Structure of Permease:
Amino acid sequence: MLATSLRTALRMARSPWGLIVVILVAVLILDAPRFPDIGQFAVNAFLGTLPYVVFAVALIGWLKAAGAEAYIARAFEGRETQAIVLAALFGGLAPFCSCEVIPFVAGLLAVGAPLSAIMAFWLSSPLIDPPTLLITAGALGWSFAIGKAIFAVTLGLFGGAIIAFGTRAGAFASPSRNTTHSACGCGASPITGRPVWGFWSDAVRRRTFGTEIRSNAAFLIKWLAFAYVLEALLVAYVPADLIAQVVGGEGFGTIVIAALVGMPAYLNSYVAPPLLSGLIDQGMGVGAAMAFMIAGAVSSIPAMAAVWSLVRPSVFAAYLGLGVVGAVLSGIVFQMVV
């Protein structure tokens, strides 16, 4: 009885909700003065993402209830290159940070979109959007802002092409963990072969919609809540000055170090430009600054926690590898051009 209870407790502690409780209790015990700020940061960040979660969950439920997943997947057949290009371009315009993009990636996985197009969107989306472009231009100049926008789309195209090649070679056969949605929807209309967009008139499709809403909402909420608690810890306990000391300087080695340091460091697209402007004034190379900014947006710890929940380890490793390689190459090219 005791052994079973202990195993149950350990299993709960390893779940996202259990880890959130453990982390917050530890902060409350060890650093009580910071507990309110950490909790408020996590809550505010989650509430900022909540509209995207609601939209994505409703969209997944609607597509599954309508039987549109196979229909959408067929729309990409024979058009993978076009899908990669459109996904990379759309990702460069979409106003999503590295965590906000997760619900939409979950939706694309749920409806069977090609992994190559998903990766193109996934890599390019956190890097640039209209507000970030203006903020970056104000702090670092238009050459840096335009360069980042170009690298965002290029990284999406590069990642999508690599994944497409790997998929054709037999890799990534089953990318999703298959935990974000139920095994199947209702299917298209047996008469027309097309999705039934007005699903609410069918009781079975209404039940499918409700099931999808509950399962996807529970999954995304718990993982994003965990991701934002991690983010709050990073903001509270990793000072920006420490990051500045590590990535200062010029040269190829500094670009690589900047990309590796940028991965776990949390500096969002609104905070990073002013800080990097100060670092450049103190002697940091522009290539290292570009590598740091790209790696930090693509591979921050909060984003990686959410990525891990969606895809299998091979896809997770590919995402990280493409993000780091893309950041280093972007830094090298930018350093040479500027």
In short: The chain has one domain: 11-337.
